[in-house]
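Document type: protein sequence-to-structure record

Subject area: structural biology

Format: plain text, a pair of labelled lines:
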Amino acid sequence: MQRATPACSQTHHESHRPPPSRPQVPRPRFYCDVLGLEIAFPHDGMLFLRTPAGDDLLNFVETRKTFDPKAGGFDHFGFHVPGTRWTKTLAALERAGVRIRGRRGRWAVYIRDPNGYTVELYRD
């Protein structure tokens, strides 16, 4: 099993929302350094990330099975970015070489993470 090394501060939070599993747990650096999430707590074969406000917890679960996108699941998941962090978040995406793959209006962008998940970032 590949193990994620915490690269951010660690706190504990109870609720979580697991996306469909991919063959490996994603690297926390993208989510922490680029999107500003934090490692919630470590667990073998899993990665628990929380948003800075602590309102959302994302749980990635490692699997040895091949992921079949046609098997179902969801198209993307999204994170609310506070207006005060919007410009900084877009700048972090650009510095990291992350391509914006789509937009919804003025305040939402779609990107892909290093494992191929589509992530929506939006603000009010």
Summary: The helical segments are 28-34, 86-95. The two ends are 39 Å apart (CA to CA).
